[in-house]
């Protein structure tokens, strides 16, 4: 890599030096134009000074100009490389963050689904509990109502029985007391005495 | 050593024995039964009149005052009974009268072999009924029987007999009351 850079650096310096020499001595290099092949060949007396000048220029540029130019290139290269690294890092970071966001999103979705499922489950349980309680309360109320109705019914029947019994006894008492004469009373007494239990039985 | 209960029992038996002997000597069996009836009425009076009962037992009076009070209050009773009641009041034993009456009845039955049967009916008994009741009672009690008759219209009908604390209730009132209870408390047939 370093060799390649040096070669490139040397070619670059030579091209710069050749250009600079051509710019300084254009009139002498092509002052005497001949004919034929000679027309395209340089004159030695002109070529040598130009070559020397070129070499000197090349050396000067290689010694002083090229390091500055190279520093600028290196700096530029470093800047671009840093920028690329930063952008790469940013991309990696953004991908990581994106993955993290995606993961969190999935977790959130899963949690949401779990929460919804739990809420649904809890709702079902509460619904079942409320329904069971309502049914139990309704059954209790019905049972109490039945018991109350039964008690009222029994009380009414007992009251009716009592009233009928009192009325029957009252009617019987009046009939017996008013309708029986003394002889009939005596016949009843005799029958009762014969049917009654013994003193010893008490 | 005799306990207070034994002393009381002896005292009751003595009063009853004295009363029976005196009544028997004074007028035979009729007098004995008359004394018994009068004593029973006096006991009822004493239970209904607490002032008289407490006065005859009041220790703030002297024995002579209690004796005099008893003689004046029961002046219409049989003389034998008056004497015994006066002595009981004088000695502060008037509260024992009901027990003396019970002991008197037992001694009458034991000494005279006679049991007094109280018979309560709605109409007066005729001779036939007396004979039927007497035979039944004698068969049950194993002694001679003397009927003490009384009329109570509240029985409605039938008969109520009692002797020696035992009781046969064959009255219409009790039978109607039993029928009333059966009607009131029977549950079968009440379901609709």
Automatic annotation (TrEMBL), chain B:
InterPro entries registered for this protein in UniProt: ATP_synth_OSCP/delta_N_sf, ATPase_OSCP/dsu
GO MF entry, a single one: proton-transporting ATP synthase activity, rotational mechanism
Chief site of localization: membrane
UniProt keyword Membrane, yes or no: yes
Keyword terms, alphabetized: ATP synthesis, Cell membrane, CF(1), Hydrogen ion transport, Ion transport, Membrane, Transport
GO annotations of cellular component type: plasma membrane; proton-transporting ATP synthase complex
Compartment list: Cell membrane; Membrane
Bilayer disposition of the protein: Peripheral membrane protein
Function, in words: This protein is part of the stalk that links CF(0) to CF(1). It either transmits conformational changes from CF(0) to CF(1) or is implicated in proton conduction. F(1)F(0) ATP synthase produces ATP from ADP in the presence of a proton or sodium gradient. F-type ATPases consist of two structural domains, F(1) containing the extramembraneous catalytic core and F(0) containing the membrane proton channel, linked together by a central stalk and a peripheral stalk. During catalysis, ATP synthesis in the catalytic domain of F(1) is coupled via a rotary mechanism of the central stalk subunits to proton translocation.
PANTHER family assigned: ATP SYNTHASE DELTA CHAIN
Family (UniProt): Belongs to the ATPase delta chain family.
Protein name per its UniProtKB record: ATP synthase subunit delta
Organism: Senegalimassilia anaerobia
Biological classification of the source: Bacteria, Bacillati, Actinomycetota, Coriobacteriia, Coriobacteriales
């Amino acid at each position: 890599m370093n060799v390649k850079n040096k070669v490139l650096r040397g070619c670059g310096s030579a091209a710069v030096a050749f250009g600079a020499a051509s710019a300084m001595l254009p009139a002498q290099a092509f002052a005497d134009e001949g004919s034929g092949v000679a027309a395209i060949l340089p004159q030695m007396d002109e070529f040598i000074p130009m070559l020397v000048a070129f070499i000197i220029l090349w050396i000067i540029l290689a010694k002083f100009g090229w390091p500055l130019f190279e520093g600028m290139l290196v700096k530029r290269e470093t800047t671009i490389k840093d920028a690329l690294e930063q952008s790469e890092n940013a991309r990696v970071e953004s991908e990581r963050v994106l993955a993290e966001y995606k993961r969190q999103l999935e977790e959130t979705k899963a949690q949401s689904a779990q929460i919804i499922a739990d809420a649904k489950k809890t709702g079902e349980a509460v619904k079942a509990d409320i329904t069971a309680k309502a049914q139990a309360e309704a059954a209790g109320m019905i049972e109490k109502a039945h018991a109350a109705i039964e008690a009222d019914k029994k009380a009414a029947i007992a009251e009716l029985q009592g009233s009928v019994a009192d009325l029957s006894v009252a009617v019987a008492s009046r009939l017996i007391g008013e309708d029986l004469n003394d002889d009939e009373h005596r016949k009843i007494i005799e029958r009762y005495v014969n049917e009654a239990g013994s003193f010893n039985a008490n | 050593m005799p306990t207070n209960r034994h002393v009381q029992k002896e005292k009751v038996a003595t009063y009853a024995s004295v009363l029976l002997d005196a009544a028997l000597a004074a007028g035979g069996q009729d007098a004995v039964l008359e004394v018994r009836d009068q004593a029973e009425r006096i006991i009822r009076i004493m239970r209904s009149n607490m002032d008289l009962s407490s006065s005859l037992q009041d220790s703030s009076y002297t024995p002579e005052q209690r004796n005099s009070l008893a003689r004046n209050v029961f002046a219409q009773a049989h003389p034998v009974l008056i004497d015994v009641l006066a002595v009981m009041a004088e000695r502060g034993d008037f509260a024992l009268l009901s027990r003396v009456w019970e002991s008197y009845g037992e001694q009458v039955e034991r000494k005279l072999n006679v049991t007094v049967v109280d018979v309560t009916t709605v109409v007066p008994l005729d001779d036939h009924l007396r004979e039927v009741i007497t035979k039944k009672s004698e068969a049950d009690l194993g002694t001679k029987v003397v009927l003490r008759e009384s009329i109570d219209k509240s029985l409605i009908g039938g008969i109520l007999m009692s002797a020696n604390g035992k009781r046969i209730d064959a009255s219409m009132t009790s039978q109607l009351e039993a029928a009333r209870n059966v009607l009131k408390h029977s549950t079968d047939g009440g379901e609709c």
